Amino acid sequence: MRIENDNQAMELALQWAARSMFITAPNPRVGCVIVKDGYVIGAGNTQPPGQAHAEVQAMKDAASRGHDVRGATVYVTLEPCSHFGRTPPCADALVKAGVAKVVMAAGDPNPLVGGQGRAKLEAAGIEVVSGVLEAEAREMNIGFMKRMQHGLPWVRMKAAASLDGRTALHNGVSQWITSPPARDDGHWWRARACAILTGIGTVQEDNPQLTVRAVDTPRQPRRIVVDSRLQISHDARILEGGGTWIVTAVANAEKEARLRDLGAEIILLPNSAGKVDLPALIKELGARQINELHVEAGFKLNGSLIREGCVDELLLYLAPSLIGDACGLFDLPTLESLDGRKALAFHEIKQIGPDLRILARFT
Ligand code: AOF
Ligand code: ZN
Predict the structure, then answer these.
(1) Is 346 within any annotated ligand binding site?
(2) Average pLDDT for 221-233
(3) What residue owns the CA closest to ligand 1's atom 10?
(4) What strand order describes the sheet that includes 195-199?
(5) Are 227 and 239 a contacting pair, CB within 8 Å?
(6) Ligand 1: which of 95, 108, 291 to mutate, most ligand atoms within 8 Å of CB?
(7) I want to staple 141 with a disulfide (CB 3.0 to 4.6 A). Which of 28, 84, 103, 133 is the partner?
(8) How far is the CA of 106 from the centre of ligand 1 (A)?
(9) Domains of the chain: residue spans and CATH
(10) Stretch 11-37: mean pLDDT
(11) Largest CA distance in the chain
């Protein structure tokens, strides 16, 4: 394909990055396209942790097609790394390969990189341009960016409701408010998350697995249950397969031992009210390298997370139906004045099958 300008090449690099959507956690998804004499000679994307970064993949791709990357321009969606992590620095590899120019979308906020990748390239006489499609590139790694800058994950709360914001009938019957395409779309968002969080209420009522099934992914996100009093049943489906984190406010050696036998890990994080300290939990998840946290919980935990300022974004599916007086979406306090309302901004609105998908961010 003939490349006419930087934006077109970076657009292509972003498409390569998207191939890494489900596989790189806790690393960012990066795409790289190498252009020489106006044509793409190699492309690649970040592999799972411990394996090659995008730039190395793209150089390998070029070599496998018999192309020499000397003098080429490299388009990469994130600043090439400068450090020895699980893999050696991409900046060094680019210098060694003799590329002429690197165009990057966004800087890498990882303190181990933070401008040093760029500096290494420039010190070797490579021309560096940055900021091409930066907003799009940052968006793709919104969780990695937030964790690197603030030590916290990006928290996305998914919910589905009727057009009048109802999630269930007064008698608790809740299934199939939104359509199969909307439910499948929800699995795509699960798949890209590092972890999926729910509450003990949802575990007891729905007994969900909270795995990704509707899209093909080689990696299942970590599952996390907020269970203040350690009430989870040993045959809860969310424990199947092991690896589930159970966050509680009470220590109970016997129950904990049983749960550990089932492959679960117990995280004790009480607040002064004897419940799980939610802001402390979010912080802990950042420390545990969770970039994107996907919340699929019920009325109560959703409300608590919002009230405690733990949520960045709502992923809301709205079905074209009215249910009337029934269960609402979020347990929030009754306000006497509109001054107390939670303000959001719509980020994206899309129709998925018959339903609406709204991404709205807290301001
Ligand atoms: C790049 N290209 O494709 C990615 C980068 O442990 P490592 O060696 O895999 O390094 C992980 C860090 O490298 C990660 O935290 C981020 O700063 C950077 N990711 N860098 O040059 C890539 N995925
Ligand atoms: Zn790298």
Answers:
(1) no
(2) 98
(3) 85
(4) 265-268, 245-248, 222-226, 195-199, 292-295, 154-162, 313-319, 355-362, 344-352
(5) no
(6) 108
(7) 28
(8) 13
(9) 6-142 (3.40.140.10), 151-362 (3.40.430.10)
(10) 98
(11) 70
CB of 108 closer than 6 angstroms to any ligand 1 atom: yes
Percentage of residues in the chain having pLDDT higher than 90: 90
- Write down the residue that tokens 């007891």 correspond to: 204
Tokens of 137: 């590139």
pTM of the model: 0.95
The encoded tokens of residue 41 equal: 């000679």
If residue 43 lies in a helix (H) or strand (E), which one and from where to where?
Answer: strand 39-45
Query: Between 90-97 and 54-64, two packed helices, what is the crossing angle to 10 degrees?
Result: 30
| Distance from C-alpha of 111 to C-alpha of 150, rounded to nearest angstrom | 11
The tokens of 146 are what? 């937030």
Dihedral pair phi/psi, residue 141, rounded to 5°:
-115, 40
Pull the structure tokens for residue 276: 């799980």
DSSP H or E run through 136: helix 134-140
Map tokens 């091409």 to a residue: 132
For the chain, the 3-state helix, strand and coil shares in percent, each to the nearest 5, are 30, 25, 45
Prediction ipTM score: 0.89
Reduced to 3 states (helix: H, G, I; strand: E, B; else coil), residue 45 is: strand
Catalytic residue check, 55: yes
Check if the beta carbon of residue 132 is closer than 8 Å to that of residue 104.
yes
Look at residue 173 and tell me whether its pLDDT is greater than 80.
no
Whose structure tokens read 């492309």? 43
